[in-house]
Sequence to fold (208 residues):
Amino acid sequence: MANVKVYNMQNVEVGEMNLSDAFFQREYNEALVHQAVVTRLANERQGTKGSLTRTEVRGGGKKPYRQKGTGNARQGSTRAPQFIKGGVVFAPKARDFSIKMNKKAKIAALYSALSKKLADKNLVVIDEVAVAEGKTKEMVAFVDAFKFDSSVLVVMCNNDEKVIRAASNLQKVQTLPVEQLSTYEVVKYNTVVLAKGSVEKLLEVHGK
Fold:
């Protein structure tokens, strides 16, 4: 098992924790991680855009002018694409962009990404994510204590409103309950901070 140090929010070591090799010592599967990220982004697309074709635009039932004798090209309707207020050629239509991914593959991608973070020393375990007053300065002190110089994802055991409020004004800090953790977030942020309880919840959900 991988043995990692556990810190508090002041960057003081308070203990150690064993991380299961089955979940945090996996070989990095770039193709699987890529698939998980693409699936997440595709499923967030609404696909609601749409325009009207010439058969769907209202009006235009009458010929704009007679067939011959005007010197103009013959026209049957003012709703043809070349006219103002006409229909759109090959108009975009609403569609479903969602992609399905096997549940076991999603889990494997998540732990592959977490294993990569651990191997690159970009994964930190702390005993508890908590602030007393929900002030921004408390999260700033946390970031400064660990000297995080890039984006940070803080994974909490639950939706602590004070922590969320304290981090909301910090552009490079994002908070997330462990139930919503996915491969996309792990890849997106440079450093992942896991509360000790959130690690235990992950193992409870996906096995030990």
Summary: The helical segments are 21-24, 30-44, 103-119, 136-146, 161-167, 183-188, 196-206.
